[in-house]
Each structure stands twice: as structure tokens, then as C-alpha cells.
# Entry
Amino acid sequence: MTRTTLSAAFAMAVALLFLSVEQGFPAGKDLPLVGGKPTLAMVNGEPLTLETFDRALAGIHGGMTDNATQSRPNPSQLLDRLINVRLILQEARNIGLDELPEVRSAEKVFVEDTLRGMLYGYHVRNIGKPDKKVVEKLYRDAVKEVKVTSVLIEKEEDGKRLEAEVKAGGDFGELAKRMIAAGEAKGSMEGQYLKFESLGTEVATTVSSMKIGEVSAPIKIGKQFSLLKLEDIRFPKDTAARAQAEKDALQAKKTASLQAYTEGLRKKYVTIDQKLVDSLDYESSEPGIEKLLADDRTLVKVKGEKPVSVAELSKALEKKFFHGAERAAEKKKINRQKDLVLEEILNRRVTIKEAKRQKLDRTEFYKSKTGEYLDGILFGAFVQKVIAPDVKVDQEELKRYYQAHIGDYTFPEMVRIDGLVFSDRKIAEEAIEKLRKGADFQWLRANAEGQVEAGKGENLLEFGGQLLAATTLPEEVRRAVSGASPGDYRLYADPGNAYYVLDIRERIPLRPMPFESAKGEMEKKVIAEKLQSVVRDWEEKLRKASDVKIYAKGEKLDRIVNPRAR
# Structure
């Protein structure tokens, strides 16, 4: 027996939820107002507003192309879907799924991330232009090219000798050429422009400190040594690189602003016991990680909030080292991360505090976004905890599905074709006659007149004797080789272009995929179908037991949402 997995259940939940955070909705005339908002339905006393409907519809439309109008949802069907989803969510809350630790934990993380994102977004909203000097530096670094001549030398003493001779006034190019001629070095003295960012670390470091015309000291490259001369530096024009530089510079400006802002919040809200921080040694056997994980001493005071304890820092550090804190301590890694992890904790605490101080958690955007996210988690939890445990698939069921959908699990027909291309139909037909009488295909390729040379014709097809899926061949070619067996020759005429003599070398017919090879994919599909079926059963049962009032459906609903439904 195979039970549905949590990932499959959650995917199913997502597929069944039409949720979006888009804003804006058309005016709903002739609808009752609940909380000041036009309402399409009441589900056990809970309003399903026009705003919620509009967000769901906007989310669906946002994933469609212009030519997908036929698959747009019927407004009444969508309203029914949303009512059913609301019933599932109510049931999930009734049985306490919203109190599950994993649900609460996921909700907490999302809520905090949303608040921080809103706070940061608001802070940098007016930073619209990058610093010109930063843009120019990033651009020049990206496009910089250097022209160098270089020589590769086996022995270090030969490299030092060449360096000394150059310092004594010798010409690098002439001296290097002599060494190359004598077999003491390798290289080309023509020189070439190279992207600076493509240079190796040691070479880039050396070149960056050189002036045009200078020759470097010997640079060790593997077991060899290289001397190079910087001939020129240039900065080619590159509009794409400049656009990227502007984007990166703007992001850097925003990041710097956010860093300064966060540092200011830390100074405003926290007091660190630095002496205690410095005394914590996570790499010592005493007191040991287990005791530190239970240490409730106050490490950082946060104004008006719960302090950060040694235990909180210790737990955050433990999560960083997924192979185990003890092993990390052995490798002397934890102490190096201590200050960084504490900074991450404090940044999160102070930004969330500031966001709440600014009452961002009371905005409609925040309420809508977090509410919809929690709905998604709850729906997934309902599928995982209530529905999925009873959804099972056995071997016999999979075999029946396999037989009923054998066309979906079939390897395509494969053909191996080689071809000759002629410019004249008559010559092509004569070539086929010769082949059928025993002429060698490769001999004809080498000797037959009237062939179109490769690269000379426009849009010529190439076969090359490769094994190809028949479905990938042009329709006209498929018709030309239809019914042909290996060893047959067929003519494919492409009027106005060329005439192909096709040699059918191999043909592998359609064949079923082995059951075991298809089993994994089938299992997912069968589980998904059963999940859908059980969810629909639950919706029907809940609908019958619930008080659902709909204030707009059919033509009335169509008129209300028509601007969005088109």
C-alpha cells in the first residue's frame, strides 16, 4: 500500500486554492455591505467579500496569456470554489489545525518576514537613482580589458634571469622570443585583449598594480612561471553592462541605507552585555553546548521586549551547523559565527519591533497578505492531516490505471534516416532507382551530381543517420516515410527548395513503457486524483451542513465582475 506524501498533499492544496495578493476591486452595487465591504456570500456567518473574489480572479488572470480566454473561469463556478475553500478552512479551524506547532511556526516566520519586508520597502521607497561614481566604477570593472604579452617558463631561475635582463634595459619582446626559440620558454608575443574579470586571481592582482608598458616579476602558475607585459587597457562600450552596473549600484545604495537604518534601530532598542558575549566559548568542553542551550542569562536587553538569552543565541548557532554543534566545535567554526548570528537575531528583533511601532501590522495589505498565507497553510494542513492519511494506492490499482492510460506511457516511434539532397527532382528519382538496384548510399553521396552542397541551400533539413522520434519530424517527411521499412528509400519533395532521397535505416515502433518505469509518475497522478475526489466529497458534506447565503450569482454576478472576467 502506498500512502500519499506530505509534499503531494501540499501541492494539491495549493492547486485547489485560488489566492492572490493583488489589490483593487470593482464597485459592487446591489450587494450587502459587511464591515463596509460589498459581500457576495455569507459562509456560516463569515463574509466572502467582492474584494476577496476579485483578488482570486486577478490571480488567475495574471497567469494567463491573451490567447487563453477560453479557459477563463466562470464567475459563478469560481464563487462556488471559494465558498467550498472557506468551508474547508472553517473546518480546519474547528478541529484545531491552526494551533498545530508547524502551522504556528510557519505563520510566525511569514508574519515576521512580511513586516520586515514592508518596513524595508517603505524605508528605501524614495531611493530611485544610483550614485553615478559607483555606476562608473562597476561599469569599468565589468568591461575592462587588458592587452598582455606573456611567456611561460619551466624553471624559476630562467624567469628571474629574464626579469633581470628586462630591468637592465633589455626589450621584453626580443628577449622572450630568444628564449622561445631556444626552447627555454613557450608563448606568443602578439598579445591579445582579455577580459580583466576572466584573469586568474594571481594574474589579476599583478596586472591591477602595473602601469602600461611595465613587465611583471615571475608569477607562479602551477609548476611553471610566467612573466607578462601590460601593453594596453581599454573599456569597450557595452550598453548591457552599463544597465547592469546601474541596477547593481542602485541595489548597493539601498542595501547600504538599510544597513545604516538597522544599525540605528539596534542603537535605539538594544543593550548588549558584551562581556558576557565575549565570554561564551562554544568550542570548549566546559560548560558545553548542552548547558549553553539551557542558559537563560540575559545576553541582550531589548526595550519593551523579551530579552535575548544565551540559550536563544545557542539554539540559533546550533541550527547553523546541521552536522551537529559538537562536530562544528571540533573544527573551530562556532565561535567565528557567534557575533554574526547574534547580529542576525538582533536585526530581526528590532526591525519587527519598529514595524509594529509604525503599525504596519494594522494595514490592509498586511492583513490581506498574511491572512491568505495562513489560509494556504491551513488548507494544506487539512489535506495532510485529515484527507491524505486515508488516500492509499495499491499495486493492482496502479496496474489498472496503467492499462487505461497506456497511451500516456508509451515510447514514441523512432526512425533512423540518412539523406541526400538534390536540386532537381529527376536526378533525385534516378538516385533512388540506383539505390534500389544495389548502389552504395555513401558512394552516391560522394559521386552523384546535382547535389545541393551543405550550407548552400536555405532551410535545408539535415538527418545525418541519427535516431529520431518520428513525432519530431516535419509532417511532410512523416508522410513520405510512412509505411517504409529499414532498407527502403523514399523521395521527399520540398518544391522550390530541394529534393531529398531518404534512406530509412532503422525503425523502432511504438512500445509501452515498462510498468516499473512508469510507476512513480502514475502514483503521483492517481494520488492527486483521489485527493481531489476526497476533497470534493468533504466540500459537499460541509456544504450540506452549513449555512451559506449567496447574494449574487448567474447573470447578476457576471454583470458585477464583467470588467475583470473579460
Remarks:
- Confidence is low (pLDDT under 50) at residues 1-27.
